[in-house]
Amino acid sequence: MKIFTKMGALALLVLSLSGCAAGKYMASYALTPKVHGIEDIERTRHKADSLMPGSTRWYDSLKVAGVLKDTTITGYRDFKVHACYVPAARPAEAQGTAIVVHGYGDNHFVFLYLVRMYRDEFNYNVLFPDLQYHGYSEGDHIQMGWNDRLDVEKWIEVAHDVFKDDFMVLHGVSMGAATVMMTSGDPLPDYVRCFVEDCGYSSVVVQFNNNRKQSFRFIPPDVLQSASLVTKKRYGWGFWEASSVKQLAKCDRPMLFIHGDADDFVPFDNLQRNYDAKVNGYKEMWVAKGAVHANAYAKYPEEYKQHVRDFLARVKEML
């Protein structure tokens, strides 16, 4: 009997150690990919042009003209974080300010199609940051939107100081959408009027569990707990607290929810989960039929623009 007890204890120890190792691996794999930041700029410039041809040429021309500017501030945990900002195409008639937030592994270049949409078509001023560990921003890991929201809240103040608007919209895609939803539940200035989230996940643990099932089926779900503990020890936050739905429950300002029904990276059922979590204030939903992850604009550019344009108009009518 003692032998079996010792064998059982040894087995539990081995499982525990392997779980810890798997947790450390998963945390490192997900949150600190080797190629990132400035090293990854060229890839993302190409990605921006693949999503909308001519995007980086447009960006470069505005920089050469001195219209589009860079700025850096001290963000969360004292890392330097970078953003670009550009005034509306007709500044004297600007309709407001948009903050555009990129997704996982991307940077401020990737969603230039949204920057162009807001600036050139909607006549909005735009600020578009690099989240920590992305683009020109510092950082020691990808924060999955949770602590990124604290940097976004600083960017909100910067954008308001620059453009002096009383109407601001936050628009994010994928992890950027989760960042926007997580931000929406915090106390914010009155001039932050509304939000647009495009294919954001309902929580970090839900998203990582989906990634685990897609890429690491042999790893049991318990490893998420270990990876979360590793993340908590290293960076001060855990997967279970990083929740869009918990933050949405506290949001009372208008929000437009967008998701492609062919999305399997951030599965389509996240849309309803997020939408239902927002129980206070105005909300809209648009399902992009047949669109895969972060593909709604590329598949339906005119419809996408019209949905956002109409949503912003309705929000302004409510003021």
What is this structure's SSE topology?
Layout: H1 2-31, H2 41-51, H3 55-64, E1 69-74, E2 80-86, E3 97-101, H4 112-121, E4 125-129, H5 148-163, E5 168-173, H6 175-184, E6 192-198, H7 204-215, H8 223-235, H9 244-248, E7 255-260, H10 269-277, E8 283-288, H11 296-299, H12 301-318
Parallel strand pairs: 3-4, 3-5, 5-6, 6-7, 7-8
Antiparallel strand pairs: 1-2, 2-4
Helix pairs in contact: 1-8, 5-6
List low-pLDDT spans.
1-18
Structural class: alpha/beta
Number of domains: 1
Overall CATH architecture: 3-Layer(aba) Sandwich
Walkthrough of the structure:
It is built from 12 helices and 8 strands. Strand 7 (about 255-260), helix 10 (about 270-275) and strand 8 (about 285-290) form a beta-alpha-beta unit. The model is unreliable at about 1-20 (pLDDT under 50). The termini are far apart. The protein has helices at about 1-30, 40-50, 55-65, 110-120, 150-165, 175-185, 205-215, 225-235, 245-250, 270-275, 295-300, 300-319; strands spanning about 70-75, 80-85, 95-100, 125-130, 170-175, 190-200, 255-260, 285-290. With about 325 residues, it is α/β, with parallel strands linked by helices. Helix 1 packs across helix 8 and helix 5 (about 150-165) crosses helix 6 (about 175-185). The protein is globular, with a radius of gyration of 21 Å. It has an 8-stranded mixed sheet with strand order 1-2-4-3-5-6-7-8, sandwiched between helices. The protein has one domain (about 35-205, about 240-319): Rossmann fold.
